[in-house]
Amino acid sequence: MTAADLKAGALIAVDWGTSNFRATLLAADGAVIDRLQAPKGILHVERDGFPAVLTELLSPWLPHLPGVPVLMAGMIGSADGLVEVPYLACPASLDDIADGLVRVTPLGEANPAYIVPGLRGQSVADSPDVMRGEEIQILGALDPDARGEQILCLPGTHAKWVRLNGRTVQSFSTCMTGDAYSALRQHTILRRFAAGGEHDAKAFRRGLERVRRPGGLMHHLFSARTEVLLGDMLPETASAYLSGLLIGDEVRAMVEAIQPQSDVTLIGDPRLTVLYAEALERHGQSSRSIDGDQAVTHGLYQLATRAGLPQSN
Amino acid sequence: MTAADLKAGALIAVDWGTSNFRATLLAADGAVIDRLQAPKGILHVERDGFPAVLTELLSPWLPHLPGVPVLMAGMIGSADGLVEVPYLACPASLDDIADGLVRVTPLGEANPAYIVPGLRGQSVADSPDVMRGEEIQILGALDPDARGEQILCLPGTHAKWVRLNGRTVQSFSTCMTGDAYSALRQHTILRRFAAGGEHDAKAFRRGLERVRRPGGLMHHLFSARTEVLLGDMLPETASAYLSGLLIGDEVRAMVEAIQPQSDVTLIGDPRLTVLYAEALERHGQSSRSIDGDQAVTHGLYQLATRAGLPQSN
User: Chain-centre distance of CA B137, in angstroms?
Assistant: First the structure.
């Protein structure tokens, strides 16, 4: 990457989540110029450390990009981030997000910076629910002239199931499946074999099937241990089986609660969306998948454009 | 405890589980003379360390009790214990357990020692399932002339739901609810508030109710976070709420799968059985509770008597 290439940058789009920091440098027309990423999620930054960490992480770019705006989404806008940005309440139009941007000054006067608000709504259980960052993926993935009802699922540490009407988020439900998967495979009796292991398609499918039987999730989880103990399952396939149990239970409950009337749109890491697509298929539910990283970049660019942010040097 | 008191000991009954070691010294008539316990479960003992640890833990008693037999139940008979003792296959009569005792020699010739076999069977999901130690609690809790079908539940790290016919264990299902509870409250996003906190009856009940709504367990778990985040729940009550969600989901699934035709018999720590009794009541299911520690001692004594073990000095 030459200095001349970098100087074409018109927007720094940042996805700053709990575990990771990802930044994309975009040209005025939305073309991707460069990318940076670091395992520097907000949980790994001291309360007062955000300006210094941001300056450091963007140091390959900033000297070449005076005045270029930085647009940030994700947990950086939470109470544990740089500044707590109020949630927009659902039903909320994705087109209203631009109006909720909050100006911040972690980079002083050199580069203006903004944080995207998250969304707050009610879930299928009529529980309060929240998201920060996923709204940008939805924005980036959505057809500009979307109409009617659409169900989206964004798998991850805290998976989101979202009901959209046109470009309006009606409601959404979080499932902490990914978070629970890590905790259960590393910190319960299953840790002896499920802590390691590669993905295994057959064991995953076996988990999807098992969880459809009676007994409940807490019972099915224990079968990972007994099947290995009694020689019915190879220990190295137990983590894939566990993944099948958890994703299978999540998808079963959500399909039952939401009853999608058309394809579910999966947005996320392709390694995850392929698993959810299979689980959905077992429930007679078709789906289509969209890459999550591309959706974030595209969503931030759209939002910045709407807010009149990108500027050439 | 005087040496003269100890000398009346006729049986050392040991419950050696994953996390804890508990020993009871019994007179020939079954009266309790003394108790010992230590946080020295089999996970805290090196593979070759069992004889030395047992000698050390029983050192207050052994010099006074040459020849007195030691009867051990629990995970000490697993592949990670002193010796792997084969499971009895269900349906198995509790009266057959005595025939499966395995003689071991961790104390050399000074004191004969025996390990109780566990049980192996099929669960409500037709999964293979196993228990080690709970069979002794069932034996100790059971009416000697029990007839007909009876459903028992033994809450704990790995709760067991057992279908008995007379004195025969027909089948049983393990739910790793307690194990998952520890992992989820300490190693997920819930850890910030759910890792501590006292029991709170109202929050527990709120969890029992919440889990009856649509959305599935992985969704309901996240509501512990959002309710606290949005000020709808005091952070210090989140662990009790989480407990209500998990126990509520377990009880719902098990009552649905087993459909008990009469009172469920709860055997365990009274602080836990009272929670399960409440969860069962919410599902219109009556129960009665029996203290688990007393059941273990009583069960080991019965078993020893049947095997002709207790002997006076």
Answer: 7
CA atoms within 13 A on the CB side of B57: 29
Q: Report whether pLDDT(A313) > 60.
A: no
Of A93, A117, A91, A96, whose CA–CA distance to A170 is shortest?
A91
| CB nearest to A129's CB, from B129, B226, B256 | B226
Minimum CA–CA partner of A130 in chain B:
B226
Which of B128, B210, B220 comes nearest A226 by C-beta?
Answer: B128
Whether A214 and B186 lie within 8 Å, measured CB to CB: no
Cβ proximity of A266 and A153 under 8 Å: yes
Which of B85, B127, B228 to mutate to test binding with chain A, by most A CBs within 10 Å of its CB? B127
Residues 6+ apart with CB under 8 A from B240: B197, B198, B199, B200, B201, B203, B204, B207
Query: What angle (nearest 5°) sits at the alpha carbon of residue B40, between those of residues B157 and B306?
Result: 75
ipTM: 0.94
Shortest alpha-carbon distance between residue B165 and chain A (Å): 20
**C-beta atoms of A120 and B216 within 8 A:** no
Q: Which helix (H) or strand (E) holds A168?
A: strand A168-175
Residue written as tokens 């084969």? B86
The pLDDT tens digits for A111-123 are: 999 999 999 999 9
- CA B92, B94, B96, B99 torsion: positive or negative? positive
Residue range B77-87, pLDDT digits in tens:
999 999 999 99
CA distance B246 to A61: 48
Pair of tokens at residue B264: 């469920």
Q: How far is CA B39 from CA B18, B42, B44, B53, B57, in A?
A: 10, 9, 8, 12, 11
